[in-house]
Amino acid sequence: MLNIQCLNKIAEAGLAQLPSDRYQLTDQTADADAILVRSADLKELVFPSKLKVIARAGAGTNNIPISRCSEAGIVVFNTPGANANAVKELVLGALVLSCRPVIPAVNWIASLGIDPQITQRTEKEKSRFVGTELKGKTLGVIGLGAIGIQIANLAVALEMRVIGYDPYISVDAAWKLSREVQHEEKLESVLKKADFITLHVPQNAKTQNMINAEALALMKNKAVLLNFARGGLVEESAVVTALAEKQLRRYITDFPSPQLAGQSGVTIIPHLGASTEEAEENCAVMAVQELIDYLENGNIRHSVNLPDVVMERSGQARICCFHRNVPNMLAHISGMFSKKGINIENLVNRSQGDYAYTLLDVDTAEVERIAAELQEQEDILRVRPLF
Ligand SMILES: NC(=O)c1ccc[n+]([C@@H]2O[C@H](COP(=O)([O-])OP(=O)(O)OC[C@H]3O[C@@H](n4cnc5c(N)ncnc54)[C@H](O)[C@@H]3O)[C@@H](O)[C@H]2O)c1
Ligand SMILES: O=C(O)[C@H](O)COP(=O)(O)O
């Protein structure tokens, strides 16, 4: 039996994919072979030696200490694109709310209670809640991945002028992007030209505080900033100042913080971007499938610390080897097999940055000993024999 610990609520549709004869849920991290998680912070978590995999049912992995996982031979997965539609739809709502004062108007009506004059008062006073339209305005999309592309294309359909910035855009993403979206090579150009700016990049050392006082100063007067990516992308004290100085018209964020609470011009949503039934199911099903394929076949799809490595099963046993990306490692591993007279039927090896992964299918099931010996070699982080 393999033990799975859920550190957040994971949709039942995903958990139902775990065959009950091979998997059971545990609430003890010490017993966990695998962890399923959403946004719980794992940075201080002590990993038990039997923990082999962490699957994030969602996109952002800044809550997971990826380098520490790699050094412990733990593969980390996420579920790219599985919640993108949910975020896109909420960003659309936020765009509309940023230029139509629906929230204050609804609050005003609610404040009237049961007023017999409500219809007359509405028609007399609604002029206080006039807004503006999105059509014809410029939307700047920062980060053209699964979510950014969908928002850019949607905004084109809304007849907005759309400009996008993503120096690392994938070929696949570029194909999906509407030709109407203008590609900007510099972040500064987007900041200067857009009426609305929406952030869709991961939070990491390079993107932390990317919207700081200097960036805000470049923005158009009375621009609107939307943040459905991560709170740490934006320097909140600078946003509060820009709002007070009327440089920024509104900041709509999915990430509450004490610094933003109660600030005028700030609309805070309690991290609901991915909170739809559909997105929660999509993410949970995808995360569980990634986890099962890794645990049972050693295959890797959508890892954030290793490349995709998928090989059809052959032979009598498979050895999965997570190791550092150092010279001669493949020759060293295969040499150990040949010394023992074990025939390698199939082999695949891929690397990503400082780490690499090798799958070997062999013609014998007698592999426990060589697996144990491999595990002792320098630069080998985890070895798993599978039958
Ligand atoms: N609010 C929510 O509930 C919610 C839901 C899903 C994702 N997110 C956040 O949104 C982020 C994006 O999600 P996604 O699914 O689109 O991810 P993704 O990986 O598909 O896209 C991210 C894009 O950002 C680009 N990028 C990286 N660094 C950049 C930089 N410095 N400047 C410009 N572009 C850069 C990448 O090239 C990539 O195309 C996630 O990392 C997560 O933090 C939030
Ligand atoms: O990165 C993500 O996928 C989102 O921020 C969603 O987070 P959640 O799964 O905690 O809602």
TrEMBL record:
Pfam hit, one: ACT_AHAS_ss
Reaction equation(s) it catalyzes: (2R)-3-phosphoglycerate + NAD(+) = 3-phosphooxypyruvate + NADH + H(+); (R)-2-hydroxyglutarate + NAD(+) = 2-oxoglutarate + NADH + H(+)
InterPro entries, per the entry: ACT-like_dom_sf, ACT_dom, AHAS_small-like_ACT, D-isomer_2_OHA_DH_cat_dom, D-isomer_DH_CS, D-isomer_DH_CS1, D-isomer_DH_NAD-bd, NAD(P)-bd_dom_sf
SUPFAM superfamilies from the UniProt entry: ACT-like (SSF55021), Formate/glycerate dehydrogenase catalytic domain-like (SSF52283), NAD(P)-binding Rossmann-fold domains (SSF51735)
UniProt GO molecular function: NAD binding; phosphoglycerate dehydrogenase activity
Keywords: NAD, Oxidoreductase
Sequence intervals crossing the membrane: none
Domain ACT: 318-387
Keyword field contains Membrane: no
Pathway(s) of this molecule: Amino-acid biosynthesis; L-serine biosynthesis; L-serine from 3-phospho-D-glycerate: step 1/3
EC number: 1.1.1.399, 1.1.1.95
Assigned protein family: Belongs to the D-isomer specific 2-hydroxyacid dehydrogenase family.
Purpose of the protein: Catalyzes the reversible oxidation of 3-phospho-D-glycerate to 3-phosphonooxypyruvate, the first step of the phosphorylated L-serine biosynthesis pathway. Also catalyzes the reversible oxidation of 2-hydroxyglutarate to 2-oxoglutarate.
Protein known as: D-3-phosphoglycerate dehydrogenase
